Amino acid sequence: MSASVVQNPPFLPPEDQEQKNIIDKLADFVLKNESKFEER
């Protein structure tokens, strides 16, 4: 007998547009500077 597991995202995205913009900018920064983060 196998049980099916439903995986939910760890959290819902914020409804506030300003928070979404901040998160997007942070994600872009991390993507652009990925190699610098990996060196540390």
From TrEMBL:
Gene3D superfamilies for this protein: Surp module
GO molecular function: RNA binding
One GO biological process term: RNA processing
Name of the protein this chain belongs to: Uncharacterized protein
Organism: Acropora cervicornis
